[in-house]
Amino acid sequence: MTDMLLLITMHVSKEIFMEYVLITGGTSGIGYELARVFAQNGFGILIAASNSEKLSMVKNSLSEEFHTEVETYKKDLSKFGAAEELYKEITGGHSEISVLVNNAGYGLKGETQNIGIEEDRNMLILNMMTLAELTKLFLKDRYQKGSGKVLNVSSTGAFQPGPYTSSFFASKAFVLSYSRAVRYEAKTWNTGLHIMSRCYKDRFLSKRGSQNSKGCHESGECGPACISQPDEK
Ligand SMILES: NC(=O)c1ccc[n+]([C@@H]2O[C@H](COP(=O)([O-])OP(=O)(O)OC[C@H]3O[C@@H](n4cnc5c(N)ncnc54)[C@H](OP(=O)(O)O)[C@@H]3O)[C@@H](O)[C@H]2O)c1
Q1: Distance 186 CA to ligand 1 centre (A)
Q2: Domain CATH for 168
Q3: What Pfam families would the database entry show (predicted)?
Q4: Whose CA is nearest to atom 36 of ligand 1?
Q5: Mind listing the pLDDT tens digit for each residue in 135-193?
Q6: Residue 30, CB half-sphere, CA atoms under 13 Å: how many?
Q7: Is the CB of 200 under 6 A from ligand 1?
Q8: 79 CA to middle of ligand 1, Å?
Q9: Residue 194 burial by CB count (10 A; 0-12/13-18/19+): exposed, middle or buried?
Q10: Is 56 part of a structural domain of the chain?
């Protein structure tokens, strides 16, 4: 009887006290490493990405290693409307999200006119629209609660124009500018909005996009990888 009570109490406490983080693109790179850190700190993990095999591998490895709840959502977030669908799917059937990490994104390289319109459109939706829509939906909920955190992953590409990575750099400038503005608004709501900017390395831009790049990573003008945060309090 006592054991049963203990089990029920544990279950109820978990339901009440477990905090959930939604990480877009949590199946590899920065997103995956962040998922591990959150899992290590007792968060329930919600991951959205487009490849179901990678999602199930990550689900198994995180739940085995950290014994925490891991839910995955297969969604191509480079399509209009995908962010809203995802958010409704999660909040409709799940506990509330207390931390949002907008991490999914990639960069196309090449001369602007040679990057396909659809390729560019998909990247811009993923890097900007999805991030802005998830932020908006999340903040609406969290302002009512009076707590919550958003981490929008930008890039040092946000700080200057990027010839041969024109729309990628511009999309990350959007992320930075949008996040700073929302962060300012959020001050009055006691909800922290965090911005992470990260330098890219060769591997990153060579994963997708045109092969004929003349970007700074080839000319050797890029600095070493780093993490920076604009110091707005
Ligand atoms: N790595 C760097 O040096 C660097 C530098 C500057 C900025 N960043 C920024 O940091 C973030 C993460 O970069 P990373 O290098 O860690 O990326 P990564 O290893 O390539 O991982 C990207 C993640 O996003 C997901 N993703 C990609 N396209 C998606 C789509 N259409 N819908 C849903 N999920 C999608 C991927 O999963 P699926 O493929 O399964 O969908 C994966 O989980 C990005 O926003 C990137 O712009 C990275």
Answers
A1: 26
A2: 3.40.50.720
A3: adh_short
A4: 25
A5: 999 988 888 888 888 999 999 999 999 999 999 999 999 999 999 888 888 887 766 66
A6: 22
A7: yes
A8: 15
A9: middle
A10: no
**Is residue 217, in this structure, part of any structural domain at all?**
yes
- Ligand 1 contact, 165 CB (< 6 A): no
Q: Report how far ligand 1's centroid is from the alpha carbon of 48 (Å).
A: 11
Could you tell me the two tokens for 145?
């609660």
Residue of the nearest CA to atom 18 in ligand 1?
29
- The answer, yes or no, to whether any atom of ligand 1 lies below 6 A from the CB of 49, is yes
pTM over 0.90: no
Torsion 141-143-144-147 (CA) sign: positive
By CB atoms closer than 10 A (0-12, 13-18, 19+), residue 11 is exposed
Q: Which residues form the domain of 205?
A: 75-228
pLDDT at 37: 98
Probe ligand 1: pick from 198, 216, 226, 227, max atoms within 8 Å of CB? 198
Whether 209 is in a domain gets the answer: yes
CA of 170 to the centre of ligand 1 (A): 16
Query: Is 64 within a domain?
Result: no
